[in-house]
Amino acid sequence: MLTTIGPNNWKWHQFEKNEIDKIKHVIHKEYCPFNKEWLDHVQENKTNCLRTFILENGKKVVKGSLIYEQNFEDELDHKICHFFMTDDLLITVNLDLTSLKHISQELLFGQIEKTENAVDGFLMILGELMNEMLYGIDLFEEKLNELIWNVSKKNKTSILDKIYMRRHELLLWKNLFIPLKELKMGIEEIYLDDEINDKIIFNRTGKRIDRAMVLINEYETEIDSIINLEEVISSHRGNEIMKTLTVITTIFTPVMALGALWGMNFKHMPELEWKYGYLLSCVLIIVSTLALYGYLKMKGWTGDLLKARKKGSFFK
Questions:
Q1: Cα-Cα end-to-end distance for the chain
Q2: Is it the case that residue 55 has pLDDT exceeding 60?
Q3: Are β-strands 89-93 and 10-15 bridged in parallel, bridged antiparallel, or unpaired?
Q4: What are the two backbone dihedrals, phi and then psi, of residue 53, each rounded to the nearest 5 degrees?
């Protein structure tokens, strides 16, 4: 589909990836030596890429591929668009705006119609893609807030799995935003002489990309803090369990020692003939156990190991 846009009549071509011949026909002969790599990416339809260059006649070209939507459950389930851009020409391949829930195509096309060149039109599209992604980030924030409270309320082993699921999801979001950040920098780099960084559309789109990167970095810090907290809690509880088992083993040492002693099968054991031998052994076991427990308590070695942890508490 061909659209002539704006007061300067710049052109926007939209294609599907199987229309390679049509794409080659549209791109002027002067760009041909630079097309093969990009067209290969269009046919592969897999990864992000970005290339910028300036021709001998001063014509500036930005081309590449951009994954703009990703299913976090399936690596291969993503949407990728390919773009070829000069001042007066924009070619997009596989750009499907109909699947994006928060983009009004009518409003977007109306705004693009007012742009002066293909660069501004492409930046307008990028800005709306970023706006769509920011809605997804809001949903991620809700999951992260729920996770933060679950660490306190339902702090079980299963919470670790949820933490690392959110960590992986955050990595995928970051993987989506980094190419956008690179694309913004690439456009700024090649159009530096035109002072594009002073233009409203570029600034708006750039701010959205920067906002997304700031959010991702802050959420990354939060999740890292949660992971560190979980590691401290897990380590502390593991140590407490080992200490508890050690204290219990120590307390019952008299029982085991005396039980082992009187469980021997030697022929001459005078205690077996004592009238009150059984009672004496029970008293001795109880007294020695209590005495050992009192000694450990006096030394402060039991602490609060034998107390149950309070609900909603990390350590108590």
A1: 67
A2: yes
A3: parallel
A4: -160, 165
Q: Tell me the HSE value of 19 on the side-chain side, using a 13 A CA sphere.
A: 15
Tokens of 308: 């149950």
* Encoded tokens for 114: 């007012």
Per residue in 173-201, pLDDT (tens digit) is 999 999 999 999 999 888 765 545 447 88
264, 240, 242, 260: which is closest to 252 by C-alpha?
A: 260
- Reading the block at residue 271, the tokens are 């205690």
| pLDDT greater than 70 at residue 92 | yes
Q: Which of 30-44, 67-81, 300-314 has the lowest mean pLDDT?
A: 300-314
Alpha-helix residue ranges (DSSP H) falling in 154-193: 158-190
CB 226 within 8 A of CB 163: yes
Residues 6+ apart with CB under 8 A from 49: 41, 64, 65
**What order do you get walking across the sheet with 60-70 strand by strand?**
2-5, 10-15, 89-93, 78-85, 60-70, 49-54
Pairing mode, strands 2-5 and 60-70? unpaired
Lookup result for tokens 């949660």: 226
Rounded CA-CA distance 92/1 in Å is 10
Burial grade of 153 (CB within 10 A; 0-12, 13-18, 19 or more): exposed
Query: Looking at the DSSP assignment, which residues form a beta bridge with residue 80?
Result: 67
Partners of 83 in beta bridges: 64, 92
- 137: closest CA among 107, 97, 176, 95? 176
Nearest Cα neighbor of 251 from 281, 287, 283 is 287
pLDDT confidence of residue 243? 78
- Rounded to two decimals, the pTM is 0.73
pLDDT higher at 119 or 44 = 119
Q: How far apart are CA 103 and CA 173, in angstroms?
A: 19
Q: What pLDDT shows up at residue 29?
A: 56
Query: At residue 85, does pLDDT exceed 80?
Result: yes
- What is the per-residue pLDDT for 93? 92
For residue 42, the surrounding DSSP H or E stretch is helix 36-44
